[in-house]
# Entry
Amino acid sequence: MTLPPGTPDLDVLDLLVSVAELGSLGAAARRHNISQPAASMRISALERRLRLRLLDRGPTGSALTDSGRSVVAHARLVLEAARSFSAGVAALHAADVPRLRVAASKTIADHRIPLWLNALRASCPQVAVSLEVDNTRHVEELIRDGAADIGFVEGPHPPPGLGSRVLGADELVVVVGAEHPWARRSRPVTLRELATTPLLWREPGSGTRDTVWEILGAECQPAQPAAELGSAVAISAAARAAVAPAVLSRLIAGPDLTSGALVEVRLAGPVALSRKFRAIWRRQSPPSGPAGMLAEHAARLESDGARHW
# Structure
C-alpha cells in the first residue's frame, strides 16, 4: 500500500510539533537551525498541502488552531514511530559489527596489547574490541568460562586444557633500589643466593611469579616473600625504596633502570630469566576471524621485535 498523495514530510511535522512546544515560529526555527522566514514558509506549505489552517500568527507568537492541535497529536505519533524505526535500524547495524572479547595479563595489556590492537585496527577497522585485564590465572578462567574469545598470558607452561600458541619471550631482570646493598655489589649474585633471599613477589596466579618460582625452585626451596604485591607498579615502587630485590620484566623496569632509580643485578653463570608470551583459547573454539587475526598480528610483531633486540 502506497502513501496517499499529499502526505507531509517528517521534517515539517517535526517543525510543527516544535512550534506547539515552544510557542513561536522563531524559537522553533532556532531549534531546527533554520531562519524564521524559512520556518514560516514550510508551515504555510504544509497548510496548503493539508488544506487546513494550523496556526494563528500574531505579534506575540503563534498559536495552534483546533485543526493544528489535532494535526500535532497525529504528528507526534508519526514521529515516535519514525524514531522507533530509526532505533531499530541502528540496532541491526550494531548487531552486524564484529565484536572481539580479549582478556590479557597486566604486563601484556600495558606493554603489548596497544601495539597489537593498532595492527588489528589497520586491517579490520570495523571490529569493536573489549579488553579485560587481570593476572594470568584469572585470564585463563575467563577463557575457560567463555567470557573472552582469546586471551594473552605469560608463564612457563601452556595452561592445562586450553589451546595455546607461543608468541614470543619476555626478558626478566633482577633489580634493586639504588640504596640497596646489592646495588654496589661487584660480584654477581648466584641463583641460590637469589632463591634464599626474601624477594618482592606478585600475587599467586601471576605469570611472572609462576615463572620465577619455577626457576628458583629448581635450585632450592625459595625463601618466603618479603612482600606480595598486586601489581608490577607497586613492586617497582617497593624496589625503588630498597625494601627488597625484585624480579621484573625489562619492559616494566626499563624506565627506572634508565633513570637510575633501579639498578640491575648481574646473575652468576649462564642463567636466563625469561617468560613466554602466549595466546590462549578454548580448544573447541580455535581463534578465527578477528581473534585469529589478532593472534597473527601479535605473533608477527613479537617476531619482528625479537629480530631487533
